[in-house]
UniProtKB/TrEMBL annotation:
Protein name: MCD domain-containing protein
Cleavable signal peptide: none
Residues annotated as domain Malonyl-CoA decarboxylase C-terminal: 75-337
Database matches in Gene3D superfamilies: Malonyl-CoA decarboxylase, catalytic domain
Entry GO MF terms: malonyl-CoA decarboxylase activity
GO CC annotation: mitochondrial matrix; peroxisomal matrix
Upper lineage: Eukaryota, Metazoa, Ecdysozoa, Nematoda, Chromadorea
InterPro entries assigned: Malonyl_CoA_deC, Malonyl_CoA_deC_C, Malonyl_CoA_deC_C_sf
Length: 370
């Protein structure tokens, strides 16, 4: 069966997939389970032969292209969540936020209350099922900590005075749709939505975590050979100014000292080496790359930078929760989207992505017409 499918033309393959869809329809419960259970290692752990795995991977790629087409912007429904929204959708939004978990009804009321917005994408093929969700705070400044947003019942002032949108949490709910850039599409759609309000927003900025910073730093500090890359000229100067090591300052003494400080999980200890941590975080964001792609190692930075944002500011004690402490030493970073620079770039990148994926199909259409 796989060999026959692989030997078919593009039109024949698409015909088969459409026939399957039309004749058997969509079992929404089964579809939801399949998406939730999807795992890229599934093929590698199966009993299929190497040839069959190759054919299945090719089929998976084509299905992903079709999903990308089906979940394009024109097929997605933007919904603003409010306290009057259906309870089942509100519950799914509550369960989906892994960035800043929603603890109780008070939390969700805050997020849906004054100066807050919650938007999500839904698709007609998956009714009442949020696909990707973004939480926004409307303010008159670029926020430097998540506490300013999540721990107060109301933000100060009248909503009409707000000129800044802070995107502080974005969550994808469907593992099976990874690789389809719904988050990017949602942010751009929400930006457009906020531009058409009574008091248009002028500044669009995120307040984002550095989810792997602490683990990356500890890994390098625990390995003497790897930690050598950490000690650049700027770091050595900061350590000299720290005046903790006397005249016998060595990279080994610094490494052990920093390792002990980081392992304390104590903000007071971190405050003592604030400038050192900020310097290492800046290097982590700007210099550490993924070996395979050359993109930013930090997945959040990679997401925003490739969508056209710029790093705006590192925030000390941006997240003082236990989760923030153990993932990023309490740091958060602002990524700013400048509309005069992002808009055209985003469209151009979106066009290239879809043209690249669907060029074979488009070329067959053109040849048919002409």
């Amino acid at each position: 069966m796989l060999e026959v499918y692989s030997a078919s033309t593009m039109d024949e393959r698409r015909f088969v997939l459409r026939e399957i869809c039309d004749k058997y329809g969509v079992e929404h419960g089964t579809l939801k389970q399949a998406i939730g259970a999807y795992n890229k290692d599934l093929l590698a752990s199966s009993d299929l032969s190497e040839t069959e795995v190759g054919l299945m991977c090719a089929l998976e790629k084509e299905l992903r292209e079709l999903l990308t087409l089906w979940f394009c912007l024109s097929n997605l429904q933007l919904l603003r969540l409010t306290w009057q929204s259906p309870a089942d959708i509100v519950e799914k939004v509550v369960q989906s936020d892994v960035v800043h978990p929603i603890r109780n009804l008070i939390d969700i009321r805050r997020r849906l209350g004054p100066h807050r917005r919650c938007f999500l994408f839904m698709h007609e093929a998956m009714p009442r099922e949020p696909l990707v969700i973004v939480h926004v705070a409307l303010m008159n400044k670029i926020a430097s900590s998540i506490q300013d947003i999540t721990e107060f019942d109301r933000l100060d002032g009248c909503e009409s005075n707000n000129d800044t949108a802070i995107y502080y949490s974005i969550s994808s709910t469907q593992r099976g749709l990874r690789g389809i850039d719904l988050g990017n599409l949602l942010i751009k759609r929400v930006v457009s939505e906020l531009q058409h309000t009574d008091s248009p927003i002028k500044v669009h900025c995120t307040l984002s975590p550095l989810p792997l910073f602490r683990s990356w730093l500890l890994k390098n500090l625990k390995d003497p050979s790897a930690s050598d890359e950490l000690f650049d000229e700027r770091l050595m100067k900061l350590c000299v100014q720290f005046n903790k090591f006397g005249d016998s300052i060595t990279t080994e003494r610094i490494r052990l000292f920093l390792l002990d400080q980081i392992l304390t999980n104590d903000f007071e200890k971190y405050d003592e080496i604030k400038e050192i941590i900020l310097h290492l975080a800046a290097r982590y964001l700007c210099e550490v790359k993924q070996p395979s792609s050359g993109r930013a190692f930090d997945r959040v930075a990679n997401f925003h930078l490739r969508n056209g944002a710029e790093m705006y500011r590192l925030n000390w004690r941006g997240n003082t929760s236990i989760r923030g402490l153990k993932s990023s030493l309490g740091l958060m970073v602002n990524y700013r989207y400048r509309l005069d620079q992002v808009g055209d770039f985003g469209f151009f990148r979106f066009f290239l992505f879809h043209f690249y994926n669907f060029a074979p199909a488009l070329s067959s259409i053109f040849f048919t017409i002409f």
